[in-house]
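INSTRUCTION: Work out how this chain folds

Fields: amino acid sequence; protein backbone structure tokens

Chain under study, with its fold:
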Amino acid sequence: MKKATIKDVARVAQVSVASVSRALNRQGGVTAETVERIRAAARQLRYIPDNAARSLITRRTHTVGALLPDLYGEFFSELIRGIDLAARARGLQLLVSSSHDGLEDASAAMRAMLGRVDGMLILSPWVDQAFLEANLPGDLPTVLMNSPVEGGEHDVINIDNRGGAHAMTEHLLRKAGHPTVTFIAGPAGNYDSVQRELGYRQAMAEFAPKAAVDVVAGSFTEESGYHAGRELLARKQRPRAVFAANDMMAVGCLYAFKEAGLQVPQDIALAGFDDIPIARYLTPSLSTVSVHIAELGRNALERLAVQLDGHERSHTTDTLGCAVVIRHTCGAS
């Protein structure tokens, strides 16, 4: 059977080819009644737009790329959801890749997207200004998320990691009344991890200056949180309050505590960071720092869309605020 063309759709719908193009590309300028007639004709003819041909004409793929450090876990699921919902609202498709194996992996993933996307969203602990200059065309619209690269050629949207960690540590010390707080850190060199640890250390210096800073290594995974929890329980004197640098580690840590027969928060208090969806449904529910993860993705996509519409990059860095969310694991409202 011969493949239907846009001219066939126009003939059956009794409209111009331009009207078919505007209706199917959601560009406006066509009445709702006409749009429905065109879509009905397209369904009848089983017409599928030739995106490759359209891209040659418009030099647009109507696709955006997202480079993330990983695709596993609720944080990235929520982030992708926020990006995708905003992209679909603008008629854009989303191409996602990861860079969890380091600089070479990030470079390969980014280069594989070039020519296939109209713009890039990048969240990666491996990315700095030198990396961007080496791997990214200077004219490609790009927005960075949670990035130490500031004041350069790209728009940046960050989370207030340091402020959020400071606020949670202050809550555990001052409102919950714990004499000290143990911190489970994220991966070494990771921007989020570094900023959250700085917030913890700053709050400890301000509100518990005589207490020792106590940092345990982690890697943002449930498994690392579980092992950190086991390590803390093996001490002669276990801590009274633990603050994990993300919720996934807090989940693993909570399991270790419950496995050992401890009551949370009666025997040991616990808090996390990110407010992933499952946090409120744990038993007991997890106190955490709310990041509004989907909003981060939506804001980044909308900032990128402004560039795609032909506007110049603003070269600004925006910071999204965090909020302490107190549930049952930290022992104080």
